[in-house]
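Hi, here's the filled form for the chain we discussed.

Project: internal
Contact: R.S.
Residues: 129
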Amino acid sequence: MGINLSTPQLIMSSLQTLIETAFDTLKEIFRPNMSLDEVAEKYSPIIDDIIKKYEKEGVKFSAGKFKIGCVDEKNFNLGFELYFQDDKKDWSKVAKTSNPMDAKEWLSPEGWQELQNVKEKAYDVEAPK
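And the returned structure, exactly as it came back:
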């Protein structure tokens, strides 16, 4: 039993494309003045979709985190880490971090202040239902 943290061994081109484009739709699903919890809620269906597509390839989702991080005095980013296990009990990690985004454009003043205070807020990812 091993853990593969560098490159998931089960990635196929369509899944790789899904991961690489995971943050491309942010402007379609986000709206200005969002709290951190609202950001996580809006992004949840995208993570669920990633998990479901990986599970169709024969691996089981085990755990994950969705993170909102403070990049600098003006920007934040989003990221996720998802862990899967195959039939051989080998682990794979799927992770991606967005490019920095303007906090004033997307986050509420309270949300941005909270993020500046904690530097990163992490949410547990559960298996989709």
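Let me know if anything looks off before we file it.
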